Each structure stands twice: as structure tokens, then as C-alpha cells.
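Two proteins were folded this term; both appear here.
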Amino acid sequence: MAKIIAFPRDDIAYNECLYAAVKELGVEVENGAWAGRWLHQHVAPGDLIHIHWPSFSYFESGSRWRTYENLVRFCAVLMLLRLRGARVVWTAHNLYPHEGGRGEWTHRFARKVVIAAAEKIFAHGNTASRILQAEFGIPRAKLVEVPHGNWIGYHPHTISKATARQALGIEPSTFVYCMVGACRPYKNIEALVDAFRQLDGNCFLLIAGKFASQDYQSRIEQLLEQLPSARFRLDAKFIASDEMQRYLLASDALVLPYTEILTSGSAMLGLSFGVPVIAPNIGSLADVITRDCGILYDAAVPDGLVQAMEQIRRESYSADAILTYARSFEWSTSARVLATVLRETEPEKPAYRSGVTST
């Protein structure tokens, strides 16, 4: 029986949730190794090779020559897989890797190779699909739109807002803006700190996550030093799954001022805790964030982020309504589409809602 071979299957939240739903459909999912001998032993005709982040298989940030060597191997193995009768699909989580991006020719080349080899390309929503078409000229028939599943139940949700704030030393009456997760330059934390600095009133900035580099952490720390110490908290560390609820439940708004994004798991994380999201009107964020669960702003407007952060304090949101909306983004929908492709029939159209009425 044909199976899915995932690159990767384990140790990434998105993949773990997706493939758990796939397995519930009775489909076998194996964790792949991008090596000719392993693939020769494990891949059979009809198997589905599911690629998520192509750069994981070739890119070495510290070695240009190692990247070239890996890229040649990556392309050769992909060709051999096709010759062996395997089929390839790619979930396009991002347009290019966040570090290097379009400016790195190996990323551009690798994506062209994957697109040429792929039977289907999965995109998280209509906007992401149109961006992929415009960038790579992908035929519309090759693109399949699937939802990014929610994180409800993935992270513990066992404490109250009051308990979360008490644990972090935040006053009950203050309005809390939060950013949580890996702190990388594309997340534009500089803009968040600068916008917060311009706000008046009883508000607090909470930033939690491990920094991509010491240099970037030092840059953000220097910006935060311009604020009164009582107005912010920086927890520059890896946030474990059981700690995630503390930061999100202590927050009134999750702020994601990204410079570029195709798909955002962080936005769905906020919604999965009933927290409204502020984000630029780019990528799949444009499809996910509605007026009832947050604010989209125009990043081209100089004070767009500041205006959005001010506006959200005047709005009223229902955590229950946001959670109901988040539940409509089901992993089972994506799993059914993937299983359908494996069985060589036309994938069904995902049925997930695009809006919610708050109460």
C-alpha cells in the first residue's frame, strides 16, 4: 500500500499535528531521510514524498561549498525518486527561507526544481496561492488550498488570565501587547518596540522567545532600554509548550509586525488562545485575520502599526468567538486532501470558514 514519506515528520508542531490527523485516516506516514541509500530501501512506486522546507535538505549557512554540494545531491535524489515512481508534493510554508530569501540563488533554484517535480503544491489560503503563482508561475491546477490547522489542545490551557499575569508580575488592569515565539529579524521586533514607545496610557509590552543571534538580541535590548523598566518584560529564552499559555493568556493582543510572511503559525496560535491579533495585510494573514478576531494594517503606511495598536484598545472582542473561529481551521481538512492526493484522485475542496461574528 502506498504511503506518505515526510520531510520531516517529527519534532515540528505543524507536522506532528498534520500527520496525526493523516494517520487517523488509516494512511501510513514515515519519517524520511534525504539520502539515496535510505530512499532506495524505503520508497516504492506510488509513494508520496511530502516536502515542507526544501532548504532543510541542502542549505548550510556557514559553508557556501557545502550548500552547493548538498544542492546537487538534493536535485539528484529528487530526480531518482521520480524515476523510481514516487510522487512529490510540497507544502509552501514560505516563499523563500526567511534568512537569505530571494537574494540567495540556491533557494530560487531549489524551489524551481521542487515545483517542476511536484504533482501538487499546497498553499494556506487564496492570498498565499496567488503570491506563489505570481512569484513562480505555477499553473493554477497544481495549487491546492488547505487551511493551517489550529493549535487548540496542542499547548496546555489550564490557567486563568489572572494567574498568568500574577506569574509574570503584570498588573490586572494594564493592557498587554505580546509577541511570543522565536525572535528572528523578519518578525520586525524593532518596529514593535518603536510603535509601543509612541503609545500613551496604561499599557505593557511582553516579548518572549529565543533570539536567532546574540547580535539581534542586543539590538532589541538596547531599544527596550529607552522604555521605563516597569512598562515591559523581555524573556529571551526558548518558550516550552507548557509555558506558552502563561504569555498568551496574560495578553490582550498578539502583535505580529512581520516584514514578510506567507503563512503564520503564530497568528493561529494567538487565535487558539482566544487572543486577537494585530498583523500587516500580507500573505495568508489577509485571509485569516478578520475584524472579529483582530486588526490588519497597511505596512506601507508609516504609522500603520501604531494606529492598529491604539485602535485595538478601543475594540471589544469575545475570546469564545475567536476560539470558535479557530476551531474551524481543522487539521483533518488538510489530512483528507493529502490522503486524496495519495490515492490519486482529485483533492476535495477544503470547507473552512473565513469569518466569525463576535458576541
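Next, the second protein.
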Amino acid sequence: MLVDTCVWSLALRRQDQARISADEKQILAQLREAIEDRRAAIVGPIRQEILSGLRDQSQFRKIEGLLEPFRDEEIKAADYVDAARLFNLCRNRGIQCGPIDILLCAVAIRNRYAIMTYDQSFKRCIEVLQAEGLMQ
């Protein structure tokens, strides 16, 4: 299962865990389960997004260390081409997808992985690809 930036950020960067919503608690429980089952995976661009913008070097090192055990799924040259094709498919259906989101979809499709996210615009991209029978 590929885990999106928003989920990692919720788990690792959110300062006040006491103020999270019921939906966020559920996604954190799902992440915890995926981690315990060793199903949680990441790609390099997601790792970069999570670590970007951390002003405090100690926080950067802490989060970098927490992410270290998670394997990076390989991104192949063909994934970029597939991502462009998927982007065009979604755009033709009226859905705009971000470049990293759609790259994550290409990697997930190639590996037959699900994607864990709670980003609503990203979910719309995934729904289009599921409707086309491309994603699980």
C-alpha cells in the first residue's frame, strides 16, 4: 500500500494530535495497521514532500529517522509515461490531478497496490482510474 503525503504528515508532523477529527483518527488507525502488517510503502517524491519545509533540523532528523524503515518503491521510466497517460485520462474526465499524485497512481497500478489518502482531489483521480478498471 502506497501512503500519500497527507497521511504521513498527519501521523508525523501534526503538532496537536488531540485535535484530530474522527476521520483522521480512522486514517491513522489504518496507517498503524498497514505499518504493523508491513504493507506501508513510500516513493521518493513523497518522502521529499514530507521532509520539505521542516525548519527545525532536529525535527527533520527525527522524521527522517521515522521514515527510514519504510522501503521506497522503485519508480521506473515507464511510470512517468504511464503517469502522463493517466493524467490525460483524468483531465479528459474533468478531473485535475497533481503530478506527484498521478505518478503515485502509476506506481500503484504497476505494483497492484492500493493508495492510502484522505486528500479529496486525489481521491477523485483514484475514482476515475478505478472506474476505468485500472486501479483497485
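The chain has a mean pLDDT of 94. The radius of gyration is 15 Å. These notes refer to the second protein only.
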